[in-house]
Amino acid sequence: MTPKTGKPLQKWITYIKDRGEIIRYIIAGGLTTAINYAVYALALLLVEGVPGDYQIVNAAAFIISAAFAFVANKYAVFRAPSANARETARQGGSFLLMRLVTYALGAGLLALLVDALGMHKLLAKVIENMMVIFLNYFISKGFIFRRPSAAGDTVQTPDTGDGA
What sections of the chain are H helices per DSSP? Predict the structure, then answer.
């Protein structure tokens, strides 16, 4: 008989295993967001007052955090190993293109929040990050880190153990 104290722990372990991909994405996304925000905030201190300062540092934060995000998403979140270098290049190119699109959407949102609405640059970045995180997850899962099915003509996401 399992001790009473062991049951909640076992339930928690099962819960985490069943939702592995989303939990891994939250962790990797949290780290990516922390890197992005830290670079943004620190670099903003260096160029404060320069015209377009928040957009300049937003670009630097994007480059650094996107590089981290590709590795984290490919290997830790979606567990999408490549059969060869060509497949890795395809995933990397798709990832970069997708991130450039969400970067452009985020930069537009930042401009709207900061320039048009007068919001503080750091608060605007938090709101922008929330929108980008949401978009990045669904685009990565649905289009970038997918595997061909056994038939070879349809596409499915990797088996993540999350019941999806």
Answer: 6-18, 20-47, 53-71, 85-111, 121-139
Are the C-beta atoms of residues 92 and 75 closer than 8 Å to each other?
Answer: no
**Burial of 9 (C-beta count, 10 Å sphere; 0-12/13-18/19+):** exposed
Domain boundaries, the chain: 21-144
How far is Cα 63 from Cα 58, in angstroms, rounded to an integer? 9
Q: How many CB atoms lie within 10 A of CB 79?
A: 16
**Unique residue bearing structure tokens 């722990």:** 9
What is the mean pLDDT of the segment spanning 9-31? 82
Residues present in the chain in total: 164
Overall pTM surpassing 0.90 (yes/no) = no
Distance CA 127, CA 78 (A): 25
SS3 4: coil
C-alpha 143, offset from chain centre: 14
Summarised one tens digit per residue, pLDDT across range 47-102 is: 988 888 899 999 999 999 999 999 999 998 888 888 899 989 999 999 999 999 99
Please give the single-letter amino acid code of residue 151. Answer: A
